[in-house]
Amino acid sequence: QVQLVESGGGLVQAGDSLTLSCAASGRIENVHGMGWFRQAPGRQRLLVATINRSGSAIYADAVKGRFTISRDNAKNTVYLQMDNLKFEDTAFYSCGVRPYGTSDYIYWGQGTLVTVSS
Questions:
Q1: Partner of 80 for a Cys bridge, out of 20, 27, 51, 99, CB 3.0 to 4.6 A?
Q2: How far apart, in Å, are the Cα atoms of 40 and each of 37, 46, 82, 94, 114?
Q3: 8-59: per-residue pLDDT in tens?
């Protein structure tokens, strides 16, 4: 089992920046991929950005050039730096973990709400 705790959400204005953090604990030796996903009201959960243990990252087209995902393996923490936030970035952001040997994100944190006012 892997436990995840997110922090850093809040209410900001369009154009502002915000950084989310997600700390992992438990069977962290099994953690390969870590990522951020978001779900807007009435919408399905979508990938925002993921990063593997070696630092290779993938971004959704909607956030490329504005968001940066990073990972501190020593602290078992993944970060999401969000710049130039837009109203449409408003969503519930969740951190997920993909263990070695799987293709799915199976561990999830409680999530944190990001609200961007226009």
A1: 20
A2: 10, 9, 16, 11, 10
A3: 999 999 999 999 999 999 988 888 999 999 999 899 999 999 999 999 999 9
